[in-house]
Amino acid sequence: MASSQAGAASQPSVRNLPDDARLWIFGANRPLAAEEASRVDEETARFLEGWATHGEELVAAFDWRYDRFLIIALDERRAAASGCSIDALMDHVRQLERELGVNLVDGSPVWYRDGEEIRFASRRKFRELATSGDVSGRTVVFDLTVQRLGELRTGRWELPATSSWHRQLLPSEAD
Questions:
Q1: Is the Cβ–Cβ distance between 136 and 175 less than 8 Å?
Q2: Mind giving me the DSSP string for 123-155?
Q3: pLDDT exceeds 60 at position 80
Q4: Residue 10 has pLDDT above 70, yes or no
Q5: Do 94 and 126 belong to one domain?
Q6: Do 25 and 86 share a structural domain?
């Protein structure tokens, strides 16, 4: 699995954050080239180094997976994100979108594996693919709605469609 972690030595690693760390997962509508991914790493590390809520530094880390997914994890034991700090995070991600010409914030597509390739489709299109047999209950999907790092670590992020909310998009006779 491709992943990266950049930033200053003071920046924690996702590996070192607790299972109850809060998550945000953003999917890019296209794979990023190495130099674009490097830019995401650098700018996200810089953002997280200064991320704060009501003047208190937030303990957060990020991961970049499969050239598609930006994962932000926040250890809320020290300080929880406020509305303003979440807005700042969203502003950061939207700035990345503008700079790279990529969509990251749209959480409506269904992300899934087609062999080794990661694809996305609207929910309607995914339902059509399921009806035609192009995807099935065994198709691995990415659940960008997971909210805790422990869910990601235990496989609740990347799982067969029948084991996630995606099952509602499958025909009733789906496996």
A1: yes
A2: HHHHHHHHHHTSS-TTSEEE-TT--BHHHHHTT
A3: yes
A4: no
A5: no
A6: yes
